């Protein structure tokens, strides 16, 4: 046998040092963008004026004769390193350098898409007490929104009666032809855009369809920014719906906008650059309604950027994702991020379907335009029964409908593939006069209101099946199926509310099952907020309607509710850490609706669980005075990563700190992170009958100086839970005390691969405050 060639041995050596994001099968000449993490203790040689010069010189010496150009240089405020487009071979060579910690492939992320203040108990601008007054409406705080940009001319962003910009602010507004620096004011104090990562993959953007500036050509960023910190605007409505007073959570808080999302999505390298800039600029809160697949934290640019922000005392909230109602769909799961799911308001927009047989099917819509004739019914067809490709036509995809089949009729379409409003445009172009949009089985019964371009309404999965049966049951000698849609406007005082939205992503946490995610839920269904003047409310190019406000749904809308509320808490309690603010939200959250019963799951109509809502629905007024908080430092998270079996190098990628995972620091388990919830997963091996675990927690007194808290423990069903000590006696504000919760259970009868989740809770009460934490136990039977 011939001996291996030197080239072969070189490749073996390169593969040996290759990190997990790059595989040997990827070795080809196609370049990709990588985020390069540089050792934080690597010192820039004094000969180079900036880190950019140093990094570029390193690339030139290593990858000559045609070194790639830097895409981003990260300042070190939230991340230390740079991004660059490399071939896989170049990436291998760079990874072997001693000052390089890791290479992360640039991943693509997607957006997670008036009544809220009232529903949350914040009242109006004339309140004389409570969270808004005590925080001066968030006046001295800066909320960063990483999204699709902003339309600065909306009324929600005026700066009348605002004091000067806080002197701590170091940020700025970029100056472009379509976004002059005068676009900013005392409300919108910063605006930047990051597209280098996007353009490295997609080429120069088409500036006829979007703005290469902080200006919003999508609407999502304007909407989320006004939810977090929009000013009071009256009157506000969307096409006449949800008429009333519009306001963000922190009406006087300042906004700093970092545009990171474009037509093709949001790239990690740009998101990380925005984190870095926001931290350097001096923001207090970062709001991110963007997400993607869950990966280990050392490969997750959002988790890494958020850690850098948290390490500087900045609260980071992120959307849980819209992958619900299935399990294991939650995203943005790092424990130093506050992960927000979506619930409903006590307001909806009924638009019912009345069938020719007299049956009334509940629906939802914010359509405002030429309506159907009162009292008249119209021929009704299901697009999936059209001759030809039944699948495409059932979804009402572009070009799939035969005008001969749908003209002059109300057409029922199934959800999926194209956007909900786009289906209505397909029906309209084919001559249909109305649309019924039916949920699939996976969507369940959750209804989302959309600004349709023709008379249309959404119905649940069960209702959709009922309408199909009605259509298919028609006999040749009987009257053909007919229907009409009855639009009923805006309805207030809806019960039950809140309900966990069907689309809201659910736990358990795919990366760290010992950390309950989502953390909590906030309003995210049919939320009215500001909207760009050059974007139609449906988002369809052929729709030329304009509106000052629009109604959208998604955990994207829930996240900025918590972001704005965090600014209020930070303003009222400037000494609180991000972990303390999160704890205040979680331990005061509620799990009952306005009927006094456990919140329902919109997808099924059954009671929801901790895997749906986490600790519960945010309660701002109670969070203002939580009594006790579960606080954490950066090094608590380092210990957590150690106990999660991360290598010391991978921990350094996330934290930029040297980690010692030996000895006492490893004496414990990842569930002992001082988190405001407690979760454990038991693997049932063999015939062991009893299993137990313990949770060690530390609470800090932020309530009354001298106080005594007594514990009440409700164990998960069929289990035993105890707490020691049963009383905590505090002598002063700021005092910390420890307690231990032990949970015992027996093996459950489960099929191979099966699991069961049960939950309870512990409440510490001093007669004034009730500090509540869920206790979650999951039993799993291995295959």
What does this protein structure show overall?
It is built from 19 helices and 37 strands. Helix 7 (220-229) runs parallel beside helix 14 and helix 8 (268-281) packs parallel to helix 9 (301-311). The strands form nine sheets. A seven-stranded parallel β-sheet has the order 7-10-6-13-15-16-26, with helices on both faces. By secondary structure, the protein is an alpha/beta fold. The chain folds into four domains: 6-105, Alpha-Beta Plaits (2-Layer Sandwich), CATH 3.30.70; 110-343 and 497-623, Peptidase S8/S53 domain (Rossmann fold), CATH 3.40.50; 350-489, Glucose Oxidase, domain 1 (3-Layer(bba) Sandwich); 628-632 and 674-780, Sandwich (Immunoglobulin-like), CATH 2.60.40. Its main location: secreted. Residues 672-777 form the Subtilisin-like protease fibronectin type-III domain. One of its GO terms (molecular function) is serine-type endopeptidase activity. Residues 138-606 form the Peptidase S8/S53 domain.
Feature tags:
Rossmann fold; 783 residues; disordered N terminus; 7-stranded parallel β-sheet; 19 helices; Alpha-Beta Plaits; 4 domains; alpha/beta; 7-stranded mixed β-sheet; Glucose Oxidase, domain 1; globular; 37 strands; 21% helix
Report how far apart the termini are: 43 Å
- Biggest sheet details: 7 strands, parallel
Structural class: alpha/beta
Number of strands: 37
Low-confidence stretches: 1-27, 124-129
Outline, from the CA principal axes?
globular
Signal peptide: 1-24
Family: Belongs to the peptidase S8 family.
Domain PA: 377-467
Active site: 147 (charge relay system), 220 (charge relay system), 556 (charge relay system)
């Amino acid at each position: 046998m011939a001996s291996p060639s030197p080239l072969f041995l070189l490749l073996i050596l390169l593969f040996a040092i290759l990190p997990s994001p790059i595989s040997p099968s990827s070795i080809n000449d196609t370049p990709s963008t990588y985020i390069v993490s540089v050792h934080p203790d690597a010192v820039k040689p004094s000969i180079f004026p900036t880190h950019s010069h140093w990094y570029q010189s390193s690339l030139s010496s290593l990858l000559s004769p045609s070194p790639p150009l830097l895409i981003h240089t990260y300042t070190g405020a939230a991340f230390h390193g740079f991004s660059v487009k490399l071939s896989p071979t170049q990436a291998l060579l760079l990874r072997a350098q001693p000052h390089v910690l890791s290479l992360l492939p640039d991943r693509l992320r997607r957006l997670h898409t008036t009544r809220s203040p009232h529903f949350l108990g914040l009242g109006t601008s004339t309140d004389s007490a409570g969270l808004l007054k005590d925080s001066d409406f968030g006046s001295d705080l800066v909320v960063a929104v990483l999204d699709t940009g902003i339309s600065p001319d909306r009324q929600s962003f005026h700066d009348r009666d605002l004091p000067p910009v806080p002197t701590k602010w170091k940020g700025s507004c970029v100056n472009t032809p379509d976004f002059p620096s005068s676009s900013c004011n005392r409300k919108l104090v910063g605006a930047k855009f990051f597209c280098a990562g996007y353009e490295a993959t997609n080429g120069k953007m088409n500036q006829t369809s979007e703005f290469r500036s902080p200006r919003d050509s999508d609407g999502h960023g304007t909407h989320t920014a006004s939810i977090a910190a929009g000013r009071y605007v009256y009157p506000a409505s969307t096409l006449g719906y949800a008429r009333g007073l519009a306001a963000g959570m922190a009406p006087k808080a300042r906004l700093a906008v970092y545009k990171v999302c474009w037509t093709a999505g949001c790239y990690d390298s740009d998101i990380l650059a925005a984190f870095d800039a926001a931290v350097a600029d001096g923001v207090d809160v970062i709001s991110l309604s963007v997400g993607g697949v869950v990966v280990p934290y050392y490969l997750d640019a959002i988790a890494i950027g958020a850690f850098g922000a948290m390490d500087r005392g900045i609260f980071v909230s992120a959307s849980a994702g819209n992958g619900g109602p299935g399990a294991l769909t939650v995203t943005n799961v790092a424990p130093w991020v506050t992960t927000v799911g979506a619930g409903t308001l006590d307001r909806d927009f009924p638009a019912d379907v009345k069938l020719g047989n007299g049956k009334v099917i509940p629906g939802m819509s914010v359509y405002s335009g030429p309506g159907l004739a009162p009292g008249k019914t119209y021929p009704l067809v299901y697009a999936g029964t059209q001759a030809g490709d039944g699948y495409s036509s059932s979804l009402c995809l572009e070009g799939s409908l035969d005008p001969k089949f749908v003209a002059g009729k109300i057409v029922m379409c199934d959800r999926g593939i194209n956007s909900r409003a786009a289906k209505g445009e397909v029906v309209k172009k084919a001559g249909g006069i109305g649309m019924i949009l039916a949920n699939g089985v996976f969507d369940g019964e959750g209804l989302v209101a959309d600004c349709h371009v023709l008379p249309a309404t959404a119905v649940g999965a069960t209702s959709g099946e009922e309408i199909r049966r009605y259509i298919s049951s028609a006999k040749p000698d009987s009257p053909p199926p007919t229907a009409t849609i009855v639009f009923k406007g805006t309805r207030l005082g809806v019960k039950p509310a809140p309900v966990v939205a069907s689309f809201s992503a659910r736990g358990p946490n795919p990366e760290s099952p010992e950390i309950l995610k989502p953390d909590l839920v906030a309003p995210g269904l049919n939320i009215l907020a500001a909207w760009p003047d050059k974007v139609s409310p449906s988002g369809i190019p052929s729709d030329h309607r304009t509106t000052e406000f629009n109604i959208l749904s998604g955990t994207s809308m829930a996240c900025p509710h918590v972001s704005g509320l965090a600014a209020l808490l930070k303003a009222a309690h400037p000494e609180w850490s991000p972990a303390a603010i999160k704890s205040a939200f979680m331990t005061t959250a509620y799990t009952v609706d306005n009927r006094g019963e456990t919140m329902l799951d919109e997808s099924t109509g059954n009671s929801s669980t901790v895997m749906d809502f986490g600790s519960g629905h945010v309660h701002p007024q109670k969070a203002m005075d939580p009594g006790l908080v579960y606080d954490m430092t950066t090094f608590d998270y380092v210990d957590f990563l150690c106990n999660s079996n991360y290598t010391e190098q991978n921990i350094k990628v996330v934290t930029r700190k040297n980690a010692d995972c030996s000895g006492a620091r490893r004496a414990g388990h990842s569930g002992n992170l001082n988190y405001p919830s407690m979760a454990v997963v038991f693997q049932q091996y063999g015939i062991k009958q009893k299993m137990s675990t313990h949770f060690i927690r530390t609470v800090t007194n932020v309530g009354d100086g001298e106080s005594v808290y007594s514990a009440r423990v409700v164990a998960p069903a069929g289990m035993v839970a105890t707490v020691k000590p049963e009383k905590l006696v505090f002598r002063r504000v700021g005092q910390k005390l420890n307690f231990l919760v032990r949970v015992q259970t027996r093996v459950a009868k489960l099929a191979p691969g099966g699991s069961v989740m049960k939950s309870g809770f512990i409440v510490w009460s001093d007669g004034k405050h009730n500090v509540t934490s869920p206790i979650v136990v999951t039993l799993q039977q291995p295959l």
